[in-house]
Amino acid sequence: MKNFDWTSFTRKITVKASLAEMYSAWACSHEIERWFLSRCSFKDSNGKVRSATENFQKGDSYDWNWHLYDVTESGKITEANGKDFLQFSFASKCLVDVKLSQKDEEILVELTQKDIPTDDDSKKNIRLGCDSGWSFFLLNLKSVYEGGLDLREKKERISGMINC
């Protein structure tokens, strides 16, 4: 595993949706809760919570929670062009880039998580864990927007479910 990149990874998926729909799927708390989070709060630079249907802006902060996972992730929106690119801090010191582009009648969603620390805990929990998590949630994004089926398990009945 000498040539394995522990510091970043990229995952891609296409979704039959408009560019505006895919941007809001990431940037609007109402939409991101449809496929990724159980609860989302975006706050502007003055600490005012944005409405559930308002897209975040560069400089905003967030608090995120997931179904079956008792942790709050807090971070910053570091880039947001309102159209096809956004970036946020994630998992401590990492950055996540989301690039959106038109490919025929679909939108290519390209997610890159980078600046992953290389200590053993980060290799396991961030590099491998986040890679697995993003792979599932990108598939759920496609499922929700193309067919309406949310693949997340939301009932706490079996531990270690794929979406937590």
Structural class: alpha+beta
CATH architectural grouping: 2-Layer Sandwich
Strand percentage: 25-35%
Overall pLDDT score = 95
CATH topology: Alpha-D-Glucose-1,6-Bisphosphate, Chain A, domain 4
Number of domains: 1
The succession of helices and strands, N to C, reads: EHHEEEEEEH
CATH class bucket: Alpha Beta
Strand order of the largest sheet: 1-7-6-5-4-3-2
**Regions with little confidence, pLDDT below 50 for 5+ residues:** none
- CATH superfamily grouping: START domain
The radius of gyration is 15 Å
Question: Can you tell me about this structure?
Answer:
It is a single chain. By secondary structure, the chain is an alpha+beta fold. It has one domain (9-147): START domain (Alpha-D-Glucose-1,6-Bisphosphate, Chain A, domain 4, 2-Layer Sandwich), CATH 3.30.530. It has helices spanning 19-27, 29-35, 120-147, and strands spanning 9-15, 39-43, 61-66, 69-80, 85-90, 94-103, 106-114. The chain has a seven-stranded antiparallel beta sheet with strand order 1-7-6-5-4-3-2. 27% of the residues are buried.
